[in-house]
Amino acid sequence: RHAQARLRRGSRTNIARGTKPGGRSKGIRFGTGSNTEVNRYPSMRLESHLTQLVNRLELLLGVDPQNEPGTSSAKQVLEQTNNVEVKETLEALRSLRRSYDPPSLDSRDFAFITNPKLRSILELDYIEAQRCLSAGAPKASAMLAAGVLEGMLLDQLQREGVRAHDNYAKATKDFRRAGQEIDWDKAGLRQLLSAAAQLGIINDLANQLGSEAIDCRDTVHPNAEIRNGKRAQSEEAELLLVTVKLMYRTLSLAP
Asked: What is the pLDDT of residues 184-222, one digit of tens each?
């Protein structure tokens, strides 16, 4: 659901990239200027569709993806299936991916993030959030951008120097706890933004912009979207991406 959860799992889906976790593949140059770097990834416009396809394959093969995770990788499952419908669908998706010309995207190194695994996740998610928006998938873009914000704030709020702040207990008093400790997996974006603003980690503008966007993290579940009556549109995705840039600038310049 966000970067913290993926850190626990210690892996990342690399179906569309064809790389090992944490690795990079050759290909495309994204962005220019001092805040950008060369990033080499294949086009991932249809990554979310591929994920859906993998789940469909698991169901076709009689595997419950929630309760019985297989030992085979998604790539192996795709290569081994003999189902005609699946093969036709897969070839159509690959054909679309080959025909997609990805735009030039802004890339950030997130050098101020102390956890190297989290840093790698945020680099990839920031690129994917922009790619989703350019491909007309604002909900996916908003969810990824919100995850990037959460990742940056989680890193900051768990630092020893921040935890020693006189106002820390008050700023985090509404966070859910597991015993005496904060349950960071249950911390929502608005809570993180509010606490960071109270502790002076981010400025009021970043807090205001981020808080105005809907909480997109749980809308991956259709029932949550029905219950809330909201779906992330391009405006929410753009707002969250702007907030990422503002927060990135603030945190990268912090001592």
From this structure: 999 988 899 999 999 999 988 888 888 877 666 666 778
CA-CA distance, 203 to 17, in Å (whole number)?
A: 36
The per-residue pLDDT for 161 is: 93
How far lies 175's CA from each of 1, 2, 185, 245, in Å?
Answer: 17, 17, 10, 25
Above 50 in pLDDT, residue 179?
A: yes
Overall size of the chain counted in residues: 255
> Angle CA(234)–CA(152)–CA(115) in degrees, nearest 5?
135
pTM: 0.66
* φ, ψ of residue 177 in degrees (nearest 5): -125, 150
